[in-house]
Each structure stands twice: as structure tokens, then as C-alpha cells.
Amino acid sequence: MATATTPSSASFATHSMDADDVFAAMGIAGFGKATRKRELDPNRFDKAKRDVKEDESVPSAGPSTPGIAQSRVDSRASPEGSAEPGPQPSANQNQEEPEYDPSDDEDDIEGDFPTTHELTMKDHTKVVTALGMDPSGARIVSGSHDYDCKLWDFGGMTMECKPFKSWEPSGSYPINETKFSHDGTKFLVIPATFQPRMYDRDGTELAVYIKGDPYLRDMKNTAGHVAEVMDCSWHPKDPKTFITSSADSTVRIWDADNKRKQKTVIVVKSKDRGGRTKVSACSYSPDATLIGGACTDGAVHLWQTNSNFVRPHRTIEGAHAKGSETGSLTFSLDGHTVMTRGGPGDDTLKLWDTRAFKKPIAVREGLPAVYPRTNAVFSPDDRYVVTGCGPTVSGGSASLVFMKKENLEVVKRLSVDSTPVKVMWHAKLNQIVAGLANGRIVVLYSPESSHNGAKLVMSKGPARKVTIEDMADALSAPNIITPHALPMFRDMEAGRGTKRKREKDRMDPRKSRRPELPVTGPGKGGRVGASATQHVVQNLVRDTTRDVDPREALLKYADVAEKDPKWTGAWKVNQPQAVFAEEPVEEKEDDIL
Question: Region labeled Disordered — which residues (predicted)?
Fold first, then answer.
């Protein structure tokens, strides 16, 4: 049996080889057009690589160890292909090998920060004071002092780096804050007005929350803010709950579905004259058990979410300089560390422990904040802190400052073109987004440790220019049209396959041409409202004009016109008898014949 199958298999292999040789001789490589493989340029990220300056070098983060550092440099500097090997230690020489120190791994922090490459997005004309990113890292919403909000999408962005939507939420008012919800379906925009606004991820307005009565003294009785809203924060677990802080000395908890009134009002009492202060920053803790607020009188308050919010759970008076606007209040992932960034006039960064909320556990001074909205954020691994720093009085350039979380020791300074105001460090992308004072948004990333985001834009490369050959191919390509694929040639039989389409069109008010529904309650949008008793009142006093015979109504004044010709007295002498047009007499058919 084996001897019978072997010749057939060999003959089949020989036949297939002969067919391949014939195809190769005729120049036929296969059927159909060969698909050209897209080859990515291995050096595509080098165009966006930052120029490393001397002041950006990583300083030592603690007591230096010259022996270990020198051995590292020597091992890197020795070339692999050198003809002369380095001096070898003698066998009888006692050389102590340095012990392993876990802190040495932290000294080499260059790989911890994705700052080797950058992507610049230019569309704002003034300082960028608000940044928000969705949890997936696909979209960015930005706000500026040029009154505009802009939506950026990394997936659909070209090398020109332009937003796909731009609009003015509140006319000529700057934007204080923008934040995406934790489910990524909507985001908040906080303009410098009394009313927060909510949009979906495509920029469609969903709600404008109510403005309170400014003539009421008790803030608990107002349905909304009565002064400028300054900050906001989403609930970390409930995507329909968020808080806002305002210059009316309140923090308000809102239900995203109810734009007519907030759920709870937290009245912040100050020791200043008048008992009011501006709450410039607010935030939820990661477990949603605490709400933090920083005020312009220098105090920082913490409230428990399960309390009645009559008085704060923890309070620190004089946490920052009095009269300065604290740029941000941020909770770390451990849940008990709070970071506050002082504004202009304070220029400090402080860490607090909620378990011993009496004095800061670490303070870093000498961080000039040029703009009040300057913030600070934790790294995704909760090991570092990054904030923006403006130029000092003695000189220097604007920079991003990276510090250790334990003691706020500066480990890296990254020079930028303009003062960074808003900073974000996305955990999923491992990319740093900074809004600058010159209106630009800089995305810092690393080709090795970052994912998607700016790498998607840089991988696309510049758009290929259209050549004459492309135009000639487009003109010479025939257009193949199948008639039955066009809508006008389709055979749509009545009652066949159209029931579901009719039901779907019936639900669409535009396709079904549904008239506008009557307005219930007070009128709005130029339409008069209707009440429950409106139709009853209209039937009580009816207009009977349509019930009157018009001929009888005119003949009622015939006698009056003859006795007192008030308006036709000019014809009384010349033409006392009225002359009317003669009615044409229709001729009969018999007379015509």
C-alpha cells in the first residue's frame, strides 16, 4: 500500500513544481494585485525627541556614592570593540564589592518619567487653564482664557494636531476647569460664571445648571451658586454625582440629572470679617469618604461624606498664604495623603496626612506660580509629584518640576517654552499633558514606556502629497455603478421589509413631521405657555363672529346710509341714483343656433 501512494505523491509534487516554473517564466506571481505592506519608519519618533539641556540632567536624589557612580560611568564608557582591555585587578588585591542598596534603583529615575519626546498642539491663543482626559486616554478637552473649549482626539488627529471641535461655552468668560467623568461619557466645563455646564464626549451640551438667587443671605436656601464657580470634581464611584466650589463660600453636591437644584450645600465658614471666603479648589478622596476644599483665607477643610456637613471633619487654618488662591487640592492613592499647591503669593507645595492633620509632613518652597490655576498631580505609581513652575525673580526658565512624594525632594527639572499652568499624568497612557501660558498644549511621552496617545499621531507620519499620477489614475479609473444598488432603483414592495423601518421613522419626530408639543407651565423659547384652566376660560368668552351672516350684517346699515349719506354726499347732486354694472345675460344655445 505504501509503495502505491509514494509514486503518486512524487508525481504530484513534480507537477506542481513544473506549474510554478511555467508561471514564473510567464511573469505571473499570483492572482490579483499584490498588497503592498506598510513599513513603519523606525526613526519616526526621533523627530519629536526633546533636546536634552544641561539643566535637565537628573540631580542626585540623596547622599552621593562616588564609588558606585564612577563604576557605572566607566562600565558605560568602555567601548565594546576596544583593542586594549582595561586594567585588571590583581588576584592578591583585596577589593571590597559594594553592597546592594535598594535606593540605588531609585537614583536612576530617567526611565521613570516619559519626557524624552514631545508633541505640541497649537490652537489656543491665550493661557490654557483647564485640561481633562477621558479614562481611556483617547480624548482631551481643554479650556483657556480665550473663552474657547476644544476637543482633541488622538485617533483621528493628523500631524497638524488640530482639535475636531471648538466652541465658546459662555461667551466672553474664561474657562476655570474641565473634567471628564470616570465612565468617560460626559465632562464638566466650569466657566467663570455662576452656572456649571455638562457636555457629552462629542461636545453636545447636555445641561446648564441653575443659577442661585443673589439676594438671599442664607446660602442653604439658594438653588445654585450665586458667585463665580472655581473648581469641580466627579464622584469616583457614582458617575452621576459631582461637586463644585465657588466664590460664594460654598461647596455644592449635584445630581447630574437634576439641573434645577443641587442635592446638598456645604457652607464654608471663615474666620475673616464677614464669615465668607472663596473656595478655590475641591476634590473627592479615592474612596469617596472625604471631600476636601481649599479657601483663599488660607484654610483647608475636610468633610466626611456620611455626615450632615454642618462643620468640617478636619480643618487647618493658615495652610497657605492668606489672600492667595490655592491652585489644587489632590488626594493620593493611599487615601490619607493630601497635596495642596499654593497660588501666586504663596509659591509652595505641601503634603498633609489626614490622620494627623495639624502640620504638613513635607513642604517645598520656591515654586513660583504665575497663574492662580497652577496645579500639582501625583504620578500613576504614587511615587512622585509633578507641578509647573514659572521663572524666578533671579532668572531662569519655566519648567516642570518632578519631586519625590516622601520628602518633596526635587529629582528632575524639565525646561519648557512657557510657564506650565495645568498638568496631567495619565495612568493608562503613561504620558504627561501640560497646558502652557502661551496657549500651547504639550504631550510628553516615551516610545518605550508610553502607550497610544501621542504615539498614534507620530506613527501616522506626514500626509503624502498628491501627485499628477494620482490625479491621472483617479480620472482614468472607470466608475462601475450597479443600478439595483441605487436607492431610486430598489424594488420596495409595500408591506415587505418596511414595517420595522416605518416604526423606526415613526419614533423620529423629524421624519414623522410631528408638530411641536404644547408648552406646559411657563412659556419659553418665544412660545406662550398653557395652563390647565386655559381652555375653560377660552370657552366662557367665545368669539361669535363666525356665526353672524355677513349679508344681514351689511343690510343692517342700509337705512342709515340712505337717511344720512355721510360719506357719499359728493354724489348727491351729480349722480343721485346709483348706477351699477349690468349683469351679463347668458345667451341660450337655441338663440345661437
Answer: 32-121, 491-532
**Domain range for 209:** 110-460
Find the CATH number of the domain harbouring 235.
2.130.10.10
3-class SS of residue 573: coil
The reply to whether 497 falls in a domain is no
* Residue ranges of E strands in 8-137: 117-122, 128-133
Q: Are 387 and 412 in contact (CB under 8 A)?
A: no
Give the Å distances, CA to CA, from 261 to 219, 257, 325, 444: 13, 10, 27, 40
3-state secondary structure of 279: strand
Residue 142 belongs to a domain: yes
Mean pLDDT of the chain: 80
pLDDT in tens, 379-428: 999 999 999 999 877 777 899 999 999 999 999 999 998 999 999 999 99
pLDDT for the residue 45: 57
Q: What CA–CA distances, in Å, run from 299 to 128, 319, 356, 420?
A: 27, 5, 16, 25
